[in-house]
């Protein structure tokens, strides 16, 4: 199997990092836009889509800055991450998503994230 590549997506967001972080790091927040159902136990999140469940462990986080998940079925060095950054000049909030995909799947995966983020922005009132 081909080794997956890390890719990064950036989205400007009109909301406070505190509110955005809630949508990225809590079961209730993630359930609003990322998955049909989200549960968390002992730092392991269970994401459910159309009845299929995927589990991801929180491997690193910093309050209101970023949260990194590792899919339990994926190789150890792969992860997906939500990071909140501020631009220096305009002080605009930027949502940075990092994920892994095979080279030929990056475009499709990016479109999937685009769709998910659009849902997130709708929930945030952006």
TrEMBL record:
Annotated ranges, domain START-like: 1-125
InterPro entries the UniProt entry points to: START-like_dom_sf, START_2
Family matches, as SUPFAM superfamilies: Bet v1-like (SSF55961)
Gene3D superfamilies named in the record: 3.30.530.20
Pfam families (alphabetical): START_2
Domain of life: Bacteria
Protein name: START-like domain-containing protein
Higher taxonomy: Bacteria, Pseudomonadati, Bacteroidota, Chitinophagia, Chitinophagales
